[in-house]
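Please check what follows.
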Amino acid sequence: MSSDPALGAGRAARRSLRGRGHGLARLASTALVTGLVAAGALTGAGTAAADEAPAHQGGATAVLDGLKTSDKAVIKTAGADDLRVSAGLFEMTVDGGGKLKTYCIDIHNPTQPAAEYKETPWAQSSLGKNENAGRIRWILQHSYPQVDDLASLAKAAGADSLTEGTAAAGTQVAIWRFSDNADVTAVNEDAEKLADYLQGAAKNSAEPQASLTVSPAVVSGQAGGPLGPVTVHTDAAEAAVAPPADAVASGIKITDKDGNPVSKATDGTELYFDVPKGAADGTAALTVQATTSVPVGRVFTGVTTTSQTQILAGSSESVVSAQATATWAAKGPVPAVTAQKNCAKGSVDFTVTNSGDQPFRFSFEAGTDFTVEAGGTKTVSVPVGEDKAYDITLGGVDNDFKQNFKGVLDCVTASTPAPGDEGTDTQAGASPSPVATAAAADTTGGGEGDLAATGGSSATPVIAGVAVVLVLLGIGTMVFLRRKKSAAGAQ
């Protein structure tokens, strides 16, 4: 939902419904925004040091422009008045260039103005537990805007005629019935016929491949040999490979498995960091970038704030990017850390690989210690509350290694039970980094492992007014406390 017609009571409705069943971030320097934003610095991997934490496994990142093509719909909710909302297509502007068109798949959650979004796998969104996810993709492939012959679309649906607005509304209504199990109806008769047609005809379709990713996003080892491989996955015909910014001075090269320099990649290309023997302990990052149409059906979620989850309905040629980082040291532990959201468990899963010659001990902000033996890998799950922003720091116990991850877990719609939360009105998980309950698992290999302008509620101005009052009260309280503190200090 765009912020203008946003349903101000969306959050309250969402919590009420849960009572029945909980229910290229900007390409700059060496860091890119992703679903897991790695911020801060890596320092002291044994004697190694790194300036930036690993960041971007890949895809498109974009800023929400708002709802652009729509008509009206009505949502029925138990024990509450019907909600008249706007339903249709949103637009986003891609970082680096390009435009995206999206539909909402999170009806009771409002959008945030100019929210930043990133391309996300289905498993890291509410579609991960939705058995009708494939039917949503079928609708996207067989309706507006992918089908822009509105006369033929109307004929297929048994409608008299369709405009762009009513076609978008009918498509959105059909999607909501699958994404949110919503009791929703298009106001326009022809839009409603389209929604019924799409709902009845929808068949399961597979999740589309990501526009561009690299795996793993982090590698580590000792200088004097190739570190990798980092595998490129993309639907683009070709992608450019950019070496580290100081590659010439440092002597670091990006090569293939035979040591040949690489500047371009296609799907399946394996990349290696060639670090000269005797190089000082450190880190380096490569960037892979392409211009391509992002596949229809890719999910977009908020980067660091909870904003209505979107699904791609159309894409211009857009810039997509991914980053991989290598860390090396002459001796001691040499950790590489990747993290990803786990919607099935309501957690963020950290996979730590140690390519050094000594064990690596780490913890999460003075919590339980974990150990990864030399050459080993360990995965630790940190519970995170649904719709809660998290700020998790992983640090070395015996050295000054530190890496910070920020993001938000947004895996649940009003009709989707959160892990361990079926039938309750509470949110899953605990504080952003509740390491006391983290579950560790040893593995053998490396790894990564608006209210859709559902809006126009008459409650919106009232809620907005209350919000302003609360903000002013908060400011007044802060001023009062500061004055009181100053007065006490003067006595």
